[in-house]
């Protein structure tokens, strides 16, 4: 697995560029998580995880409350989770996760985004095997060694801990998300720069020139799609 947490800078830059779009996506994700279970995060682990991730993007309380109230009401919007996989310039690999109430529309839009920007859609499994589902945490101002010692004291095994730009990054198994987070919180860590489940590439590729420009345009177009929640890739964006 690649050690670099390649999404921190990219996602934060994207958040700053269009916060209203990010908030809309979180509103939908919170609604779906609450609708599929209890609207109480203490009784709904999926909702709790979404709300924790929302905090790292500074999603306003009124956005969260509105989505929760909508889930409690009579509204019966149904969204399905769908994953699309494809290839960008020079063999770059991309995974697109969507929440949609119209699968045909979403599939058509994602396919068009790939086709018009130097990429092409793949079949299910054509890309995801080169990624690992991973719980990721980012802790600012803490040394990786200190975090490792803390988690070892709690008998929690993690895949990797390293430092990047002053942030300690923890990679753990997806089913350890809540255990790791609780251990960190119990140690006095209240804020995370990242706290989410992600798809981490096993290997990264470097692009340059026209390939890099085309790749970045493709990612931008995919991120702009209303139904798209997450976009993962294997390109080193530094």
UniProtKB/TrEMBL annotation:
Location of the protein in the cell: Cytoplasm
Q: Name one GO cellular component term.
A: cytosol
Which GO terms fall under biological process for this protein? Answer: regulation of DNA-templated transcription
* Any one GO molecular-function label of the UniProt entry: DNA binding
Q: Which Pfam families match?
A: TACO1_YebC_N (PF20772), Transcrip_reg (PF01709)
Alphabetically ordered keywords of this record: Cytoplasm, DNA-binding, Transcription, Transcription regulation
Where mainly found? cytoplasm
List the InterPro entries: Integrase-like_N (IPR017856), TACO1_YebC-like_2nd/3rd_dom (IPR048300), TACO1_YebC_N (IPR049083), Transcrip_reg_TACO1-like (IPR002876), Transcrip_reg_TACO1-like_dom3 (IPR026564), Transcrip_reg_TACO1_YeeN (IPR026562), YebC-like (IPR029072)
Q: Is Hydrolase set as a keyword in this record?
A: no
**Alphabetical list of Gene3D superfamilies matching this protein:** 1.10.10.200, 3.30.70.980
Annotated TACO1/YebC-like N-terminal domain residues: 3-73
Limits of the TACO1/YebC-like second and third domain: 79-235
> Which family is it part of?
Belongs to the TACO1 family. YeeN subfamily.
What is this protein's record name?
Probable transcriptional regulatory protein GCM10010978_25400
Q: Which organism is it from?
A: Compostibacillus humi
